[in-house]
Write a structure and sequence with these properties.
By secondary structure, this protein is of the alpha+beta class. Helices cover 43% and strands 23% of the residues.
Amino acid sequence: MGNRTRRDGGASLVEFALVVPILTLFLFGIVQFGLAFDQKQSINSAAREGARTAAIQDDSVTYTAIRARVDSSFQGLASDTVDNVIVEIVDPATGTPTVAAATNPCKDNAGQTVRVTAINTFVATIPFFGTIEPDLTGVGEFRCEIDA
């Protein structure tokens, strides 16, 4: 019986060597997916905050103010700012978006929808596969407020 356990020990080592890379790949994949999901939720929240800021009828609302609100709301892993912010006015009747003016996007657009899209690149590093860099996009929409 003693000889049999010695022969099985080598087989266990080979099996362990074959399984460890696969388990490592799954572990890193799960962690990277969790980090990407967290950043996706953060960018969605930041886009909503930017859209809420853009919906206000106020002359102090500019593209710069909207971008600053998106950046201040974004809690990214590697950076505190998003790569790109797009502000559009969407006509509810046709659904077609047009790029909003740089100053007060909801001025003269009461009742229409303002859409803020925030785009950020997520860097995922997975062993044996290398680095992938998908773009994560968050979208927030609010109806433009009516100036009272």
